[in-house]
Amino acid sequence: YQTALDDWLQIRSALAVLESRLGPSFHPLSAEYHQPLPTPFGTALQYRSYDIGIIWALLHMAHIISIRSHPAMPPASMMAAGVAAAATAGHANEIGRIAAGIVTASPGEPLNPSLGAALIESTMPLFFAGVQYQDRAQREWLVSRILDIEARTGWGSAGLIARGCEAAWERAAAAGRGPPYKSQRNETREDERLSGRKMGGEGDGSGGNGEGVGGARESPRELVDRRFVMTCPGTRVHWAMGLLAAEEDLLRERGGLPKVGLVSWDGGVVVEGGEVN
Question: Which spans does this entry mark as compositional bias, Basic and acidic residues (predicted)?
C-alpha cells in the first residue's frame, strides 16, 4: 500500500507542477474581451484559443482520475466516483465551465476544423465530470451538448458517452445515491447501442444473423461484419459504462480499506475515502 501511495503522490505532484507552469497566456480571458455567458456551472470560461481550453479540461480530468484512483479508494470506479465526489466537485464544475465556453456555430453553418476537434476532445472530460453531476440543469445541458457534438461532427462515440452518463445517473438513483433521472435517449435511433434496443442475434447467443462463411447473408440490422466473431451477449455493455465497472463484482468488506483524507479542489472540504457511508 505504501508503495502505491508514494506513486500516487508523485503523480499528484507532477500535475501540480504542470499546472504551475501554465503562465498568463493560458489564463481565461477577462470580461472585457468577451461577452459573459451564463451556464448551469457558472459563467463560462473562454480562452485565447480552443486548444488552451482543452488543455485545462484535460488537466482537470487528470485531477479527477487521480483522486478517484487513490490506493485507498474502492476498486470499482463508480463507487470511487461517489466517495471522492466532494473532492472532485470543483474540477468537475470547471470542466463544465470550460466546455460551455467552447461556443458552437449556428446550425447550418460550416464547422471550423479546429472547433470540431475541440468539441470532440471535450467529450471525454465531460464524461468523467458528468457521471457525478447531481443538478438537473447540468445533466440536461451535458446530454444536449454531447448529442449536439455528435450531430455536428459525425463522431458517433459522443452518443455513447451521453448514454454512459445517463446510465450512471440511473444506476446512482436506483442505489439511492443520487436524484432520479429519466433518460433522454431516442428509442427510434438506428444504432442499438444508443437506443437501448436489442441487436439482431443477441437472443440466441450468436454474434449476428449471418448464415455462414460462403455467400452468407448479413442482417441489415448488424453494425459490423460479425460472421467470424463469437460473442457472449451477457457481457455486452456500453463501452463508456465499462469504464465505471460493476461495483457488485468488486465490493469489499465494509471497513476493509484504509481511510484517507482528500482535500477538495478549493481546499475547503475534507472527505473520508476508503468506505461508503
Answer: 184-201
DSSP assignment of 166-235, as one string?
Answer: HHHHHHHHHTTSS--------TT-S-HHHH-PPPTTTTTT-SSS---STTPPPPTT-SS--TT----GGG
Whether residue 75 is predicted with pLDDT greater than 90 in this model: the reply is no
Grid coordinates given for 69:
484512483
**Among 56, 54, 63, which Cα is nearest to 121's?**
54
Give residue-wise pLDDT tens across range 160-171: 888 888 888 888
Place of cell 476508503: 274
The SS3 of residue 267 is coil
From residue 244, give the alpha-carbon distance in Å to each of 146, 150, 225. 19, 22, 28
Helix, strand, coil shares, percent, the chain, to 5: 50, 5, 45
Residues 252-257: contacts with CB within 8 Å, 24+ apart? 252/74, 252/75, 257/72, 257/73, 257/74
Sign for the CA dihedral angle at 98, 100, 103, 108 comes to positive
Mean pLDDT of 256-263: 50
Residue 102 contacts residue 215 (beta carbons within 8 Å): no
- Domains in the chain: boundaries: 2-198+239-273, 200-235
Cα distance from N-terminal residue to C-terminal residue, the chain = 22
Cα 112 to Cα 148: distance, rounded to the nearest angstrom:
15
**Partners of 272 in the β-ladder:** 261
CA 117 to chain centre: 17
